[in-house]
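Q: What would this chain look like folded?
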Amino acid sequence: MDSRGRVITRYRMPTLRQEGKDKVISRLLKAVAVIIGGPEYKVEAIGVGCPGPLDSKKGIVLSPPNLPDWRGVRLKKIIETEFRIPVAVENDANCAGLGEAIAGAGRHASSMVLLTLGTGIGSAIVLDGKLWTGKGGFAAELGHTSIDINGPRCGCGNRGCIELYASATGVVRRMKKALKARGGAMTAESIFLASAKGDKAARRIVDETARYLGCALANIVNALDPEVIVLAGGMAKAGRGFIDKAEKEMRGRALKESSRGVRVVSAKLGEDAGIIGAAWRAKEL
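A: My prediction, written as structure tokens:
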């Protein structure tokens, strides 16, 4: 990315996550080397988006619920040692939120909240163009706010987190439970597709998911009163109908004064959001 926030080149490869963190890190280093090796660019800093919670100042991965083998990885030190260039490590959802705020769906908004609806639920809060990260850098873990104190155990240790109900993983888990099915190649995408084709069980799960998401949005609106809420990730591509149902639920639950005027929109930048946000954090070093 250049200093104006424009992506000027990219390189992509599979992470091979199933082979463990060492393989992922080695491939990350290889990808960076490919970009840095281009003689037409002078790279001044490297930005990395990584699942949190993490210590962004020290660049240490702490306890990502969906990547247990990454606990304690000193990612900043590993990359700086390899390339001798300053490195910024930031929560991947924060990177996506910052990217959308700079150049995407949250551009020109005074306050923005982003939710990424994927394997889990990531989130970011951007106020006046700056990330709100809290006293220790761990703010905006909105996917791990509980909506059921007696709900199932989440990977974070809490019970009934919204991530268990409104993420792609949660949709599949609940569908399998409804069908009393085990295993199989079921995905959130296939469930949403079945719902669109009229499958009653799938439609019930999708509608429930929209209600759960709407409940989470109402909590966000009541707590933060944002100008814009941006939905990103695979499930956000399910269509405006799904988002409209979630928004209707939100407006029925949130304080009228807080919900008045808030916009719920789809992300615009796709994968570029995280790229721009991570590079922008590096630019701030």
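Residues 65 and 155 are 5 Å apart (CA to CA).
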